[in-house]
């Protein structure tokens, strides 16, 4: 039914998926009403709806028939807050040596960052569900590989991974192939400590800053304090400073910035890090990174800024997260506010002028409550079935 369907054409047909699912499920009277509506929890298939957060496996039905030839097929999609979020599909082909290839793809219906974890091996394990005579095939669940993606506009397609099956003798006519999967939307930023250390070692010129040897340029703060520097380092690490230096006819530059912020700016330019970043005002660091286009400072700062949220600054954090498009931080702030009503008594909330941000906050809180209710219903249904 779904073979060779154009992604855009499928979007027009998607409202009819519920009808398809209904007709598909009506033949199985032994399945509970909740399962007929939502499908087996975690299964991504064209026959059922599956929440993105619940997805644990992709269902490739009639795998033997499809892997014998060539073509492209749809697997199914996932939803979030009632809206389509991801659609999975694949192509199959046969290459030299009787190798059968399955190329896995995903279409992201929205914008933003996400990660996909899938099996990292093509090894197959045959299993049989309780009460079912037909075995199914499963790719390894204990060896997953992670891929990160970023969508700047909706409905972008991404290649995920190719699986190679050398022989099809383990497949029978009715076999379903399950591909383990984990989807994370707006994944938290994780720093690789080894990479950070390497960057710091290669970038650390703190000796030049402290000794002030062979300096050839002066930066002057708003208080008129002078900071001897090296012009080549300023220009190399900040496009903004490079432009200002080029436009200046003298060997000095006055910047409307406090002494403290100037020290932080130069510390990062010369060392590639902020020594006591956990004790610093990370909002201020983000502002410095944005003003001087210091991409690495932006990256270094955002993984710790969430730890500074409190009732007095939560609204400011939300404003900053929205300004710098830090979606994961914004979600974290919204969750904090939903769990800490004291924020609504803060000066930040009383002085909030961003109506859209306030609407987004209340909508997120409403969705959060609804999500908890839905999970309780699913748990209750599972208990009834057991």
Helix content: 25-40%
> In percent, how much strand structure appears in the residues?
15-25%
Total number of helices: 15
Helix-strand sequence: HHHEEHEEEEEEEEEHHEEHHEHHHHHHH
What is the 3D shape? elongated
Major beta sheet, specifics?
7 strands, mixed
DSSP strand count: 14
User: Termini distance?
Assistant: 34 Å
Q: How many structurally independent domains? A: 2
- Helix and strand content put the structural class at alpha+beta
Which spans have pLDDT < 50 for at least 5 consecutive residues? 1-39
Rg over CA atoms: 27 Å
Mean pLDDT over all positions: 79
Protein name: BTB domain-containing protein
InterPro entries: BTB/POZ_dom (IPR000210), SKP1/BTB/POZ_sf (IPR011333)
Descriptive overview:
- There is one protein chain.
- Strands 1, 2, 6, 7, 8, 9 and 11 form a seven-stranded mixed sheet that branches. The chain has a four-stranded antiparallel sheet with strand order 3-4-5-10, with no helix packed on it. Strands 13-12-14 form a three-stranded mixed sheet.
- The chain is 39% helix and 24% strand.
- It has helices spanning 7-13, 17-25, 33-38, 63-67, 193-203, 206-211, 231-237, 239-246, 259-271, 282-292, 295-305, 314-323, 327-339, 347-350, 355-385; strands at 43-44, 57-60, 71-80, 83-95, 99-108, 112-119, 125-127, 136-138, 144-151, 156-165, 177-185, 217-220, 226-229, 252-254.
- By secondary structure, it is α+β, with helices and mostly antiparallel strands.
- It contains 15 helices and 14 strands.
- It has two domains: 7-187; 193-370, Potassium Channel Kv1.1, Chain A, CATH 3.30.710.
- Pfam families: BTB.
- InterPro entries: BTB/POZ_dom (IPR000210), SKP1/BTB/POZ_sf (IPR011333).
- This is BTB domain-containing protein.
- Residues 215-274 form the BTB domain.
